[in-house]
Amino acid sequence: MSEQALVHMPQRTTLHRAAMVGNRDSVAALIQGGCALDLQDKDGNTALHEVSWHGFSHCIKCWSRQELTSTSGTR
Q1: Average pLDDT, the chain
Q2: pLDDT in tens, 20-40
Q3: Where are the ANK repeats (predicted)?
Q4: CB 62 within 8 A of CB 31
Q5: What is the mean pLDDT of residues 50-70?
Q6: 63 is in which domain, residue-wise?
Q7: Structural domains counted in the chain
Q8: Cβ neighbours of 27 (radius 10 Å)
Q9: What are the angstrom distances between the C-alpha of 35 and each of 32, 45, 56, 75?
Q10: Are 12 and 1 in contact (CB under 8 A)?
Q11: What is the rounded distance in angstroms from the CA atom of residue 7 to the CA atom of residue 70?
Q12: Which class for 64: exposed (0-12), middle (13-18), buried (19 or more C-beta within 10 A)?
């Protein structure tokens, strides 16, 4: 996806944009920084939907790590 195409997506978050292109480093940094994971675009899709649809398993692991971190702190 071109950078110009990404600029014209006002309904998508930075996490959505990083997820759409499989940018694991950005996805990981945003998740670790505490960004909202459940925000939806105008079609009702989250960033996790984007990485799943595009097959970016390396990005999906970022969500798994965040879930482990979140739940381990509450035990």
Answers
A1: 81
A2: 999 999 999 999 999 999 999
A3: 10-42
A4: yes
A5: 82
A6: 3-72
A7: 1
A8: 28
A9: 8, 16, 19, 23
A10: no
A11: 32
A12: exposed
